[in-house]
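Exercise 4. Each item below gives a protein and its sequence. For each, produce the structure-token representation.

Item: Cytochrome P450 (Protea cynaroides).
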Amino acid sequence: MVVEVGSVEIGRVRMQYSTREDLLGETVISGKSQAAALVYHRDDLQRVDSFFLMAGHGGGKQTARVKLHRYHQGHEACLWLATYLSSNPISIVSSSSLAKEMLKDHDAIFANHNPPIAALVIAYGGNDILWNPLGPDWRMMRKVLVRDLMSNTSLDACYNLRRQEIQQMMEEKTRIGVEFRKMIGELVILLGKTNISDIFPILAPLDLQGIERKAKVVFTWADTILDSVINERLKMEAGGEKRSKDDLESKDFLEIFLEIKQQEDGKAALSMRQLKALLLDIISAGTDTTTTTLEWAFAEMMQNPNIMRKVQEELGKVVGMSNKVEESHISMLPYLNAVVKETLRLHPAISLLIPHCPSQSCTIGQFTIPKGANVFLNVWKIHRDPEAWEDPSEFLPERFLRDNNGYDYMGNNFNYLPFGSGRRICPGISLAERMSMYMLATLLHSFEWKLLENAELDLSDEFGLMLKKRIPLVITPTPRLSKVELYK
Ligand code: HEM
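Answer:
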């Protein structure tokens, strides 16, 4: 239940709240002064998350336009404390016009992230791409990732590996250990948790929620694995051994990285620490985002069986019932491509992006965002804006098939930003696109899918860094191709 329109004083902060729909629009907090806001996530607010935010110090009058839910009222004491102690103001941008001002007109100012404590621990002191500030190190690492790994030539060179992995998946022989998946899951959870130590640095030495301690465990585990894999590879190469058959197509990212290091003739651009940070970025930023997107795509298609049928018909025509899906088929599957785009519209994997942090005070719209603020870009909200999208809550892949709809993943249309926009746009788009299309195509071409008997389809999400399904989807496959060899 939502409280009535009104206002409340918390310490020196006056909060205005409303049930009016217009307040779902901007929730930008004036930066010069103290202010506090509560973030809602969904239109119905029945399951809104207790995510409280505040703007920084300073005197004067302040207003935070927010929508307040009874559920949040328990946080008032906390908010009061926050307004006196918090060092990081927080703002939320929920409209495409302000998103454009932020990530296009003032992109250089907003192109940094404020690393939380968990990120500093896990990502080699924030020396990876994601948390590095804009500067020569970030530029160099991003260039290595985009130019040397994400180019079509490099991705083609790794195709054989992806093919083998998909085959393993079909035969249910997964090479990724349970422990590995568990640790990556834990890493994503730790990065997404609101850490009281980040909000009140004064409390950081106490590590009240144990997040720093847990992050150290994950870091030690990941670092040990990366060290052993890299050392093993270096030893093999020093001994003149090839990792697998002498085949260019079975190269992996590590092999490409090590080649880059060797080409530098001792003047390695990438240090070993940066190389490990980059590998960890690829694993952490690339794994859960892609699998979460696949799970949502399946959930939406289970809800809309006619859409699944259309995808399977397209696959039947393009691939044929006597063939396996290959990555080369992807460009010939426009309907499946539209399904992935629509999935990322309704369920953007990183729904508030990674908070952007302005390097100087900057005015966007009528709001001044102070230097050092954490600015959340509410992509979830922008993707459901009825001004921009017809029937915004409906899963309608066809909207992406209309002529000149102009929606790609490159962040040029500010109504559609599943990968962000500007300097910090996701550098893994080409891999994400290939992997999600290839995996979906293979699974849908090879099997019919059914919910477990008596199971109910649930489409609600759980808020965190990653927008995951609240209840994991469990569905069962039945082979639909005629020849058993196609499953080997
Ligand atoms: C469906 C899959 C994916 C989605 C939806 C996604 C989305 C995003 C988003 C929204 C951001 C943050 C942009 C911002 O804060 O402005 C981001 C950053 C990033 N992503 Fe992805 N991503 C995906 C897959 C991948 C893959 C496969 C890789 C690995 C190659 C990757 C690597 C990164 C890195 C390194 C960054 C940080 C970039 C920087 O700060 O300069 N992502 N991604």
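Check: The CA atoms of residues 277 and 332 lie 36 Å apart.
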